Amino acid sequence: MESWLFLALVLLIAIFGHNSSLIIATVIVMVLKLIPYTAKWLPLIQHKGINWGVTVISVAILIPIATGQIGFNDLWAAFKTPAGWIAVGMGIAVAILSKYGVNQLAAVPQVTVALVLGTIIGVVAFKGIAAGPVIASGMTYCIVTLLNLHF
């Protein structure tokens, strides 16, 4: 029952915040909970969902290459500007943080609750996008490790 109340609260916050992605995600999870025998599928979705999401995002990012909107000239041009180098550096940093984030989420489930709350606040109050829980977890890992803190 508690999970339904929590999901309903998330749905209300998403509706109030006009965040269609969070509304859709919450409704999908609620529908999955309603369907008999899906309890065994939920852990699979939880475990593999981030990878599936990254795959979908990667496909979307590669489409301009496939359509010819982005080519090698654009790639070389990126290395000619400071902004291009910063973008490459941030891409590397995000990949590294995500690696630690995935490990952190698996090792310390309590982090998930705080990250979900932070993500909801960021999405609803600041019109952010819920694309960063793994990165946020990686950042949490780095700060917690740096400050020698524990959950």
Overview of the structural elements:
- This protein is an all-alpha fold and 151 residues long.
- The chain has a domain at 71-151.
- 80% of the residues lie in helices and 0% in strands.
- It has seven helices and no strands.
- Helix 5 packs across helix 6.
- The longest helix is centred in the middle third of the chain and has 26 residues, at 41-66.
- The radius of gyration is 18 Å and the shape is globular.
- The two termini are 26 Å apart.
- This is UPF0756 membrane protein Lreu_0946.
- Its main location: membrane.
- Belongs to the UPF0756 family.
- It is a multi-pass membrane protein.
Primary descriptors:
single chain, 151 residues, 0% strand
Structural class: mainly alpha
Number of strands: 0
Query: Over all CA atoms, what is the radius of gyration?
Result: 18 Å
| Tally of separate helices | 7
Beta-strand fraction estimate:
under 5%
Element order, helices and strands? Answer: HHHHHHH
**Percent helix range:** over 70%
Terminal Cα span:
26 Å
> What does the main sheet amount to?
none
Transmembrane segments: 4-24, 52-72, 77-97, 115-135
Organism: Limosilactobacillus reuteri (strain DSM 20016) (Lactobacillus reuteri)
Membrane topology: Multi-pass membrane protein
Family: Belongs to the UPF0756 family.
SSE arrangement:
Blueprint: H1 2-16, H2 20-34, H3 41-66, H4 72-78, H5 82-107, H6 109-126, H7 133-146
Helix pairs in contact: 1-2, 5-6, 5-7, 6-7
Summarize the structure.
It is a multi-pass membrane protein. The chain has 151 residues and is mostly helical.
